[in-house]
Amino acid sequence: MKRFHVHVHVDDLARNIDFYSKMFGAAPARVESDYAKWMLDEPAVNFAISTRGHGHTGVDHLGIQVDNDADLLAMKTQAQAADLSLIDEGATTCCYARSDKHWVIDPQGLPWEHFQTLGTIPVFREEAPAGTTASTTTPEDQASACCTPKVSGKPIGIPVKSSCC
User: Fold this and answer.
1) 51: which strand partners?
2) Could you give the CA distance from residue 136 to residue 66 in angstroms, rounded to a whole number?
3) CATH number of this structure's domain 2-152, picked from the four choices 3.60.130.10, 3.40.30.10, 3.10.180.10, 3.90.550.10
4) Residues 105/158, Cβ–Cβ less than 8 Å
5) Which residues, in sequence order, are bridge partners of residue 8?
6) Domain limits of the chain?
7) Cα separation, 54 vs 65, whole angstroms
8) DSSP-derived 3-state class of residue 22
């Protein structure tokens, strides 16, 4: 199954949790001090809000969440075949989750995250161990750290502006 993902930055988490809970007719699946997420089946959407917008509110990024490696690889292969600007994070942590992901950036600079969630973590993001960088960490460390992404495809000169990496 593929699930549409939307991440919105908000200025008042409690007020927005109340609003979106009423709008969706459901409580969030996860709530933290700076984050909330609804995993809706109808429509199939992973809708997240956070206060990590660095002074701006509104849509941070869009995405597609997949349930398996094959779907994620198919999306990555499609992006590579189309020579889209691809930012490959691989195994990483963000948004209270451990995941495997890559990004494509649309012509307006809006990041699209393609990801598979592999598990939950108790913090928004786990940092690389002290004294290491993405190039010196082991594969096990990289699975829990925000790694340096590999970029391929047509350069568009627009950095990823999301709350994750």
Assistant:
1) none
2) 29
3) 3.10.180.10
4) yes
5) 49, 59
6) 2-152
7) 25
8) helix
Contacts of 65 (CB under 8 A, 6+ apart): 2, 3, 4, 5, 46, 115, 116, 117
Amino acid letter, residue 139:
P
Q: 21: exposed, middle or buried (C-beta count within 10 Å: 0-12, 13-18, 19+)?
A: middle
CA atoms within 13 A on the CB side of 80: 12
Mean pLDDT, range 67-84, rounded to an integer: 90
Give the mean pLDDT of the chain: 79
Question: 78-134 pLDDT, tens per residue?
Answer: 888 887 878 888 888 787 888 989 998 887 788 899 999 888 877 777 775 454 443
Among 154, 79, 163, 77, smallest CA distance to 124 is for 163
49 contacts: CB under 8 Å, gap ≥ 6 = 7, 8, 9, 10, 13, 16, 17, 20, 35, 36, 37
Query: Tell me, what's the pLDDT at 83?
Result: 79
What average pLDDT score do residues 44-68 get? 90
> Model confidence at 22, in pLDDT bands (50, 70, 90)?
very high
Count the Cβ atoms, other than its own, within 10 Å of residue 72.
21
Position with higher pLDDT, 35 vs 95: 35
